[in-house]
Design brief:
It is built from seven helices and twelve strands. By secondary structure, the protein is α+β, with helices and mostly antiparallel strands. The chain folds into two domains: about 160 residues, Alpha-Beta Plaits, CATH 3.30.70; about 80 residues, no CATH class.
């Protein structure tokens, strides 16, 4: 069974970030022998004065290939206790757990995720959609406002065209030149493409920048490249500014 787990609003300005907690929870799921966790995606939601957030208003989501012998309720109970224990004082943590295969209609969930990037949504709307679709949604401290982002993060991960993967790729030092083929061999890179949608040839050269990340496109971990002005390489990895678009 493939499920999605999403956390939101678990931190304060002095605490560990939500991404770190998501990573720790994913490790615990594997440590218990319940299943195999995938990469974590960060989904940027609307920044607005009416939305309380710590620094960026982003949700963190990961997929778990859950073993047949592990009931879904066991993972949900563990994740709930984890949030109540590990979330920072003053935070408003929310948890969303969804079995994509059991969703008969994905569109309302996808629409909720995309809406959360451009408008202020309510807890009542989030809970109503969770009841309608059979998705688990729960609050675990504070005012529970994080349920909105948690459900939105699941919708965006299901959509497959939003978010950056947590952590940076170790491909080599900044300024080094690599071929597209060598970058595609990294285990966390499913595809390499230009920001304009073009697919560079395997032998083409790429200038490595700093803090290289992949983004979620077409449900895959994609390393995006932009045109380079260096004569030694026609491509370069995307800048941090460019990656903020995802």
């Amino acid at each position: 069974m493939n499920i999605l787990v999403c956390l939101d609003d678990t931190d304060n300005l002095e605490s560990r970030g939500t991404g770190e907690l998501a990573s720790l929870l994913a490790e615990q799921v594997e440590g218990q022998g319940w299943g195999i966790s995938s990469f974590i995606t960060r989904h940027q939601l609307l920044v607005h004065p009416d939305i309380p957030y710590t620094s960026h208003n982003s949700a963190m989501c990961f997929r778990v290939a859950l073993n047949d012998g592990c009931p879904l309720d066991r993972l949900i109970n563990h994740a709930s206790r984890f949030l109540e224990r590990e979330s920072a004082p003053g935070s408003d943590p929310g948890l969303c757990v969804a079995n994509a295969a059991s969703l008969t209609d994905l569109q309302p969930v996808l629409a909720f995720g995309r809406s959360a990037k451009r408008e202020v949504l309510s807890k009542s709307a989030a809970f109503a959609l969770a009841r309608q679709t059979g998705i688990h949604l729960s609050e675990h401290g504070g005012n529970g406002q994080g349920v909105i982002g948690a459900l939105a993060g699941v919708g965006l991960r299901l959509w497959g065209n939003d978010g950056r993967l947590r952590g940076k790729l170790e491909l080599g030092p900044s300024g080094e030149i690599r071929t597209v083929a060598s970058l595609q061999r990294h285990p966390l890179v499913d595809a390499v493409q230009g920001v304009d949608g073009t697919t560079p040839a395997a032998a083409e050269k790429v200038l490595l920048g700093q803090k290289i990340k992949t983004v979620l496109l077409g449900g895959k971990s994609v390393l995006l490249l932009e045109k380079s002005f260096e004569s030694a390489a026609p491509w370069q990895t995307c800048s941090r500014q460019q990656l903020r678009n995802y």
